[in-house]
Design brief:
TIM Barrel, 2 domains
C-alpha cells in the first residue's frame, strides 16, 4: 500500500472514530437537571417547635414552665432539628426543594389565656421583638447554618412574615405604645373596613399599618436592646434604612426593615405573609419592594452563594381565598387582586375540599387557571394546614389519594409536616387548631404501613421535583379508562414532558402515550423502576402498583 493510501485509510479511521465517539457521547449524555420554578415547587411547611428537637438545652426559656392546655406549650423543636433532617436527606428523599417555617422571631414571654386555654407562643405568631430570634427556636448562627445547609442541597428557605399584629399583652409582656397599635374594635369580617381597621381577635394588638405618622421606638424595646448591648447598632441601622428609603418612621416601615434584615443577613429566598387580608393591600407592595432590594443586596454581597436568578418569592395567606378565573378576593363591599400588590402566589384553600371532585376535574381546572388568569403567577395548594380545621383527610384514611391530589395538581404543592406519614390530626383533649399541631413522631416513620405511605409521597415528590411539567405544565387527558394524562412544559430554556396513569390495574397494563412519546422511545416508570418501549403509541408494563409515572429514559 502506497503512502497516499495509508493517509486516506488513516483519515477514514480518524473520522470513523470521531463519529463513534460523538455517538457514544450523545448516548451517555446525562439528563439536563430540571431548573427550579416556584410555580411547580415542592414546599414543605413545618411548625418549628413541633418538627424535630435538635438541641434539648434550649427547651425552656423565660421561665415558660407553667402548665398549658394540651399541645399549647413549647415542646422543644428548633432550627437545629430542621438542619439535622436536611443533613440526613429527609427532605431530599421527599423531593422537597423549599421549606417554609413558622415565625422564629422572639415571642411574648408570658402565658396567654390562663386556665383551660393556657398557651405560650410556641407557634411563632406572637411577636415581642422582630429583631431577635426566640431562644426556644435557636440562634442567628443556627439560622445561618440552616440556610447554607439547605442551599447546598438545592433547598430554598421561606420564613413567615407577621406585619399585621404583635403578640398578646401578658403579665410578663408590656403593651406596645398606642401610636403603634390598636386593641379595638375586634374584626367582624363583614366588609373591607371591618376586616382591616380592627384587631383580629381580642388581646391581639393590631399594628396601625395605615399610619404614615412618625413614631418613636417602644420604651420596652429600647430598654431591651440596651440590656442586650445592641442599642447603638440597631439605631444606626434604622437611621440608614430611613435615610435610604425616605419612608416615614411609621410602624409598618420599622417592621419591614426588621424583616428584610433576614434576607440581607442570611439570604432567605422568600416570605409567606400572614393575615394578608387584614392589612391594607398597599402595605404588601411596599414590603415586596423592600424584599427585592434586600435580596439584590444579598446576592451582590454573596455572589458565590447565589443559587440562580430566581426572584424573591412572596406568597400570601388570604384566609378562605379560592383560586378562580376572577383572581380577586371579595370582601363583600370591595374586591382586591393581591397579585397586583407584590405577591407571586396566594395560598389556595380549594384543594383540601376536593373530595367529591374527580382527578380529571381537579387537574384540568388548575391547568386551565394557570394558563389563563394566573399566567406567569402561582398558587400554593395544600390538603392540610396548621389553622384550617377542615383538611382533606382529617382521619388520615386516604393518605395515598391525598398525595395524588396535592402532588399531581398544577401549582406549588405545600406538604404540611406529617402529611407524608399520616401524622395524627385527632388528638384527644385538644382545643381548636392545637389538634392539627401534634409533634412529628419520628418513631412511627419506621412502621410497615407508614413506610408504604412515605414511599408513595417520596416517589411522587421526587418525580414532581424532577419534572416541572407536573406542576407547571399543560395538562391533557389521554384516556378515561384507564385514566391517563400528560403534562408538557416549555419555556425559553427548558422542555419537559411526562405521562401519568392513576388507578390502573395491578399487574400487566397497557398505557397510551399518544402524541407525547414517539414509537421506539425508551421510557421508565419511575414508580416501579421498570423500563419499557413505546410501540404503536403505547407501552405495556407489568408492575404491582396501580400508578405509573413515565419519563423518557
Amino acid at each position: 500500500m502506497n503512502s497516499l493510501n495509508f493517509i486516506i485509510l488513516g483519515l477514514a479511521l480518524f473520522l470513523l472514530g470521531c463519529n463513534t465517539t460523538s455517538k457514544n457521547t450523545e448516548e451517555k449524555k446525562p439528563k439536563k437537571t430540571a431548573p427550579f420554578y416556584w410555580e411547580s415547587a415542592n414546599l414543605y411547611f413545618l411548625l418549628v417547635d413541633r418538627f424535630n428537637n435538635g438541641d434539648t438545652s434550649n427547651d425552656i426559656n423565660y421561665e415558660r414552665n407553667k402548665e398549658t392546655a394540651i399541645l399549647r406549650g413549647f415542646d422543644g423543636g428548633d432550627i437545629k432539628g430542621i438542619t439535622q433532617k436536611i443533613n440526613e436527606g429527609y427532605f431530599t428523599n421527599l423531593g422537597i426543594n423549599a421549606i417554609w417555617m413558622t415565625p422564629i422571631v422572639e415571642q411574648v414571654h408570658g402565658l396567654v389565656d390562663e386556665g383551660t386555654g393556657a398557651t405560650y407562643g410556641y407557634h411563632g405568631y406572637w411577636t415581642k421583638d422582630w429583631t431577635a430570634l426566640d431562644p426556644n427556636f435557636g440562634t442567628k448562627e443556627d439560622l445561618k447554618i440552616l440556610v447554607e445547609t439547605a442551599h447546598k442541597k438545592g433547598i430554598r428557605i421561606v420564613l413567615d412574615a407577621v406585619i399585621n399584629h404583635t403578640g398578646p399583652v401578658t403579665k410578663k409582656d408590656a403593651a406596645w405604645p398606642k401610636d403603634w397599635i390598636m386593641q379595638n374594635p375586634v374584626c367582624e369580617h363583614t366588609n373591607y373596613e371591618t376586616s382591616t381597621s380592627c384587631t383580629l381577635v381580642k388581646n391581639l394588638p393590631d399594628i396601625i399599618t395605615s399610619s404614615n405618622e412618625n413614631v418613636d421606638l417602644p420604651p420596652f424595646l429600647i430598654e431591651k436592646w440596651k440590656k442586650e448591648g445592641r442599642y447603638e447598632k440597631e439605631i444606626q441601622e434604622l437611621d440608614a434604612f430611613f435615610a435610604r428609603t425616605g419612608h416615614p418612621r411609621a410602624p409598618r416601615f420599622y417592621i419591614m426593615k426588621w424583616l428584610t434584615d433576614y434576607i440581607t443577613d442570611f439570604g432567605i429566598d422568600g416570605y409567606r405573609c400572614d393575615t394578608v387580608k387584614h392589612t391594607e393591600a398597599y402595605v404588601w407592595k411596599e414590603f415586596k419592594e423592600e424584599c427585592n432590594y434586600a435580596f439584590a443586596e444579598w446576592k451582590k454581597n454573596n455572589a458565590e452563594k447565589v443559587l440562580d436568578n430566581t426572584p424573591f418569592y412572596m406568597v400570601g395567606e388570604v384566609y378562605n381565598y379560592f383560586a378562580s378565573p376572577e383572581r380577586s378576593f371579595d370582601y363583600g363591599d370591595k374586591k382586591v387582586d393581591f397579585y397586583n400588590y407584590g405577591f407571586n402566589s396566594l395560598i389556595n384553600f380549594d384543594i383540601r375540599g376536593s373530595q367529591k371532585v374527580s382527578y380529571e376535574g381537579l387537574f384540568s381546572k388548575y391547568s386551565n387557571l394557570l394558563q389563563t388568569s394566573y399566567k406567569d403567577l402561582g398558587i400554593l395548594n395544600y390538603v392540610t394546614s396548621h389553622d384550617d380545621g377542615y383538611p382533606f383527610d382529617k382521619t388520615r384514611e386516604k393518605p395515598f389519594e391525598a398525595a395524588n391530589r396535592l402532588l399531581l395538581t398544577n401549582g406549588t404543592a405545600q406538604v404540611y409536616y406529617g402529611d407524608e406519614v399520616a401524622r395524627n390530626l385527632l388528638i384527644e383533649g385538644t382545643i381548636g387548631d392545637a389538634t392539627l399541631r401534634s409533634n412529628m413522631d419520628w418513631k412511627t416513620t419506621h412502621t410497615p404501613k407508614t413506610k408504604e405511605i412515605l414511599s408513595h409521597w417520596q416517589k411522587l415528590g421526587i418525580f414532581r421535583k424532577n419534572h416541572p411539567a407536573v406542576g407547571a405544565g399543560i395538562h391533557q387527558k389521554i384516556s378515561d379508562n384507564p385514566y391517563v394524562f400528560s403534562r408538557v412544559f416549555n419555556d425559553d430554556s427548558y422542555e419537559d414532558k411526562v405521562v401519568i396513569a392513576l388507578d390502573v390495574p395491578v399487574g400487566k397494563k397497557i398505557i397510551s402515550v399518544k402524541n407525547i412519546f414517539k414509537n421506539g422511545t425508551q421510557l421508565i416508570d419511575v414508580y416501579s423502576g421498570k423500563g419499557t418501549l413505546v410501540e404503536n403509541q403505547k407501552i405495556t408494563i407489568d408492575t404491582k402498583f396501580d400508578i405509573v409515572l413515565l419519563e423518557q429514559k
